Amino acid sequence: MKPKFWFVVAAAAAVLALIIGLVTIFATGTGPRGYVANNYPRAAHLDLSGDSDNRAYTSPKPPTAVAAEITSKWRPQSQYADSSGIYLRYSSDAVIIRPHSPGSVIHVMDADRAYRRYHSHVGGVWGWSSPHGESFRGRGPGAGK
């Protein structure tokens, strides 16, 4: 057989592998939002009103067990727990796990909206990825002047 034939076979195999890889990535979702959507049953009736980005899911397990499952797959940038629930912040999403009989309700939402909604719990605890001094106008002495 000619080398050109093997080149064509190798190229076809590479294209097929690329297609399979892309379908796998986009079908399963990436990040904590995709992980939660693929591993917990959807509970649309528990979505928070007024937030079209919010998605609710349930688990029969307690919040600590659910949080351990999620954080073992996707490490949060910041997390906080109190008697009301467990709050996980990622780069663009937040995962809020709260007790709900008989287990937990898991809310996945935009991190900024979660901060505003749960500020009484996470205010001052959730750190942001930018260093202090860069979040206000001017970014410190001599910057941008």
Q: What does the model show?
A:
It holds the Pfam family DUF4247. The chain is α+β, with helices and mostly antiparallel strands and 145 residues long. It has a domain at 30-122: TATA-Binding Protein. 39% of the residues lie in helices and 21% in strands. It has five helices and five strands. The chain has helices at 3-28, 31-39, 63-73, 111-117, 119-122, and strands at residues 55-59, 78-82, 85-89, 93-100, 103-110. The chain has a five-stranded antiparallel beta sheet with strand order 1-5-4-3-2. Strand 2 (78-82) and strand 3 form a beta hairpin. The longest helix is centred in the first third of the chain and has 26 residues, at 3-28. The chain is elongated and about 70 Å long.
Please specify the SSE layout and strand pairing.
Layout: H1 3-28, H2 31-39, E1 55-59, H3 63-73, E2 78-82, E3 85-89, E4 93-100, E5 103-110, H4 111-117, H5 119-122
Antiparallel strand pairs: 1-5, 2-3, 3-4, 4-5
Please give a handful of descriptors for the protein shown.
145 residues; alpha+beta; TATA-Binding Protein; 5 helices; 21% strand; elongated
